[in-house]
Design goal:
This protein is of the alpha/beta class. The protein has one domain: Vaccinia Virus protein VP39 (Rossmann fold). Helices cover 33% and strands 22% of the residues. The protein contains 7 helices and 7 strands. β1, α2 and β2 form a beta-alpha-beta unit. The model has no long low-confidence stretch (mean pLDDT 94). The structure holds S-adenosylmethionine. The site of S-adenosylmethionine has 20 residues, from β2, α4 and α7.
Length: 211
């Protein structure tokens, strides 16, 4: 991979404003992450995956991060409607929220499902695999923690596959292309599968000797 990734300075990045209730809950969940596994979803959109995940994984917790007001409001309303106690919706830029609020080595799973593809060459630094903040994001993963990334763009999947292995030293545990044997997990996955697009699902693992 021939892209140079700049370093991300947490001190210089603005700390997102959260409510005191949100801060207390994030701190509590992080401090309890040894006994109650904690997961993150980045770019959770309106929350289809987050809600289903929370129902399917009652003994774990998910912080679902979405930066746009419109989608985060829908996500928050859905969480309320479903009365789910194990999901915390946060409206924030994940690149700022994670380094400021999540400790290292406490996250079991990170989900990035159908991120904005930024397909233009000039925008390649805005793809997750090329982002400086990925260093801080991956530092929050536990050893044996996993990163799941889905996309409908083959080039994005290929770049992520090589970049997460070579640049970020993760192991590729799984690489699948649709048709998957499961129902659509997210609103975007539903749209792409209905259009008969191929969807790619990559799962990476963080090993013991990860630097
Ligand atoms: C293409 S949508 C996919 C939404 C959802 N994951 C799905 O598959 O239906 C990408 C989402 O990521 C959000 N997003 C992009 N960058 C983000 C960031 N830095 N922090 C939090 N959310 C982000 C966007 O606002 C958008 O809702």
């Amino acid at each position: 991979m021939n892209i140079k990734i700049r370093s991300f300075n947490r001190q210089q990045a603005p700390k997102p404003n959260l409510t005191s209730l949100e801060i207390d809950k994030v701190n509590k969940w992080v401090s309890e992450s040894e006994k109650t596994p904690l997961c993150l979803e980045i770019g959770a959109g309106a929350g289809l995956h987050a809600i289903q995940w929370a129902k399917d994984n009652c003994s774990e917790r998910l912080i679902a991060i979405e930066q746009t007001h419109e989608r985060a409001s829908k996500l928050k309303q859905r969480v309320k409607n479903h009365s789910l106690e194990n999901i915390l919706p946060i409206q924030s830029d994940a690149m700022l929220f994670i380094p400021h609020y999540i400790l290292e080595n406490c996250i079991k799973d990170i989900f990035i499902l159908y991120p904005n593809p930024n397909p233009k060459e000039k925008d390649k630094n805005q793809r997750w695999v090329n982002m400086p903040a990925m260093k801080n994001i991956l530092a929050t993963l536990k050893i044996n923690g996993k990163l799941t990334l889905a996309t409908n763009i083959e080039n994005y999947a290929n770049e992520a596959s090589s970049g997460f292995q070579e640049q970020w030293q993760l192991n590729l545990l799984e690489s699948k292309a649709s048709p998957f044997s499961f129902n659509p997990r997210t609103h975007f996955e539903k749209k792409y599968l209905e259009r008969k697009n191929t969807c790619y699902n990559l799962v990476f693992g963080k090993e013991k000797n990860h630097q």
